Amino acid sequence: MPALTCFHCGEPLAGDAPLVARVGALDHPVCCIGCRAAAEWIDSLGLQDYYRLRDALPPRASAIGDYSAWDRSQLQRMYVHQRGDGDAEACFLLEGLRCSACSWLIERAMSRMPGVRETGVSVPGKRVRIVWQPQRVSLSALLGAIAQLGYVPHPLDRQSLSDVVEREQRAALKRLVVAGLGMMQAMMFAIVLYAGALEGIETSTRDFFRWIGLLVTIPVVFYSARPFFDGAWRELRAHRAGMDTPVAFAVALVFVASIVETLRGGAQVYFDSASMFVFLLLGGRYLEMRARHRATDVVDALARLQPAVAQRLGADGVLENVGVHELQIGDCVVVGDGAIVPADGELTSAQCRVDESLLSGESKALVRHCGEQLIAGSIVVDGPAQMRVVRIGADTTLSAIVRLVGRAQQQRPRWSRLGERAAGWFVSALLLATAATAGTWLVIDPSRAFAASLAVLVVACPCAFALAVPAALARSLTVLAQRGILGLTPNAIERLVRANYFVFDKTGTLSERSLELVATQALAQTPAEACLRIAVCLEAGNTHPIANALRAAALHPGTATAQNVRRIDGGGIEGEVDGERYRLGRPGFALASRTEDSDSIVLADRTGALARFEPRETLREDAAATIDELSAAGAGIEILSGDSPVRVAAIAARLGIGRFEARVSPERKLARLAELRAGGANVAVVGDGVNDAPALAGADLAVAVGGGAELAKSSADIVLAGDRLGALLEARRVARATLRIMRQNLAWSVVYNAASVPLAAVGWIPPWLAVIGMSLSSLAVIVNSLRIRAVAAPPAAPRKPAGASTLTAVPA
Amino acid sequence: MNIIFVLIPLSLVLVALAGWAFFWSVNHSQFDDLDTPALIPLSDEISSSPADAESKAQ
To answer: Domain A309-391 classified CATH 3.30.1330.30?
Structure first.
């Protein structure tokens, strides 16, 4: 029988008597009250079809938060746009919006709220735009309704309404369609002219069709081709020849020449060529822009963490809901249970547990003590916690991360810059070649000079060449981002391809921060299972790794509770279970004997040791497979860890890694890296980005797993934000595919240009064929770049089981 | 043959109309979400949503 999963969110059900939700007159098991509420509400709206239509599972519905602070006028001013007709409009980013069925559900559910006028959901942008009547429904009620569906709404500030991305996308689409319509019309009329040239046509009719052709080309040249002219003008003023210069030059030349021919009744007009040229170029740019926008979703995902409201503790001890922008340094803020920390600060209450998983991927809640740092964007698990604000707004770590990611997307890698510079030379050479062609033909046969020089100009436009690198890079960044891999530095992809020696940190990289119990050894008459129960009783309520490991191992936790539990610092725990006194801890503590260098934990009573528990570090799920594949690819692998030799050796043995060093100081790490690099290796350091920041800085390529809150300070080139080590392999595959595609693109465009320019110069390529050739060469580059995802797909062959990893040869 | 002097301007007017309609629909978010509308016919419900009914009643 398959394990039961929640009807709403699909998570496995815990416990024997699950909650049930009544949906469509049937009882379905659900995992929690939140999911039950969500499922029953969806049912009560008559939207059960959602469960049939969806193709991705929603997030687990959480208890509905309090959104009343959103009705404050200061906040509304920032986030709500008051429309002229009295309606209000706001845009939300929805966490958990995954598939079209989600958007269908939200649209339907919102449209059933009284006072909601319009709902528009964008799945790729993870946004919903709502227009509502403020006098009939409040913003907090809308947010509550969205939260009830299981999505977490994050209002976006008013600028998002007139979103740059959206505007750019709309403008590009309009330009493309205008160019397309114009092109179709111009071609239609051009066919008449071609037919007329063959069959004979009255001069007046011919001129009529030429004027009509001019008419339909005007919007294409003056509206659709605007970006090329603007770009060319910018390039001209900056005294550098870029991509737009030859394009604008060619469009203008073809258009003006055609007008001149029309006016003086010349032999040939090229309105169809001009509009097709613009249409195909815009088509290429549109695809490129879509790819780029998909990559920027990552920044949005980070921006959604920015909390917007906070609870400020006034001088009079009264709590006040305020907007985060109203906070000042030094303010006292109370963060409730499950609330987001609004700004970077120092904990002033005794202790709390925070979940930084959204920032660092670290899934365990971390304990913070009084005086320790809390980071904006993390969630307080067991609030309320009280903190003093230290950094606000743009100074917070979260803002730094958002900026960092944004900057990485703007910076252009070395390859791209080289390509661009080469394209500049190319354009200059091209203009010279055009002039030379025109000059030569003017001497030989002036009637063919125009057509030939036009053909050279168009056919040799280095669009394909200039697109070769950026198209591949844009695509690879998108493919990477979709898999939770952020390329942060411009040359990350190039370096990833070259890396052939991988140095791993242990804790937090190969192993998780949790422990698992491998063996329970009964040392006296008491059976092992009973010892484990006693140990779990003693550790009840504790959340450190060993307690968690014991709890996970105990199949039937007892009902007994421990009394008089005392925690002894540096040793273990002491308490009474069923009247008997027990000690649990390091052998040295429990048995009051000499300490041994081992991780084992001993349970003892007055008479002596009862059982020994052997915990070990939990390996990251995909660590073995990752190490396997890397060593199979011939890469060197080494562990450098600051941890104790016993633990490092254990992990190395389990993963089949031959070389490791324990108790490594940061200086030693750097020295070892320098040594490896001097030996000719391209070293990649994989760490958690926190405790080995210096090592990351000293490597050829720094990879941070999970990112970490210190991400902003670390010098990681690549961040595996999904917290999966296996993403490293995917990143490697994508990087290799990118390099290969890029080479193909460059080779293709160079060959194409080298072959076509001479043909055009001698007049064998008519201008219309030149346009087709040029557009097809650019399109070939773009389509080829889109293949990166397919090329980088993981090998289809079944992987060998992870357990076999220890048997593989240790790399020399 | 002179009919083309009527038909061609007419076709241009139609193209201009099509272009205007397209601009209107882009400006009214018709091209922002291309995924959801495909699912709407799959739903069994016939009645329009209360919000629509209300706005019609007003």
So the answer is: no
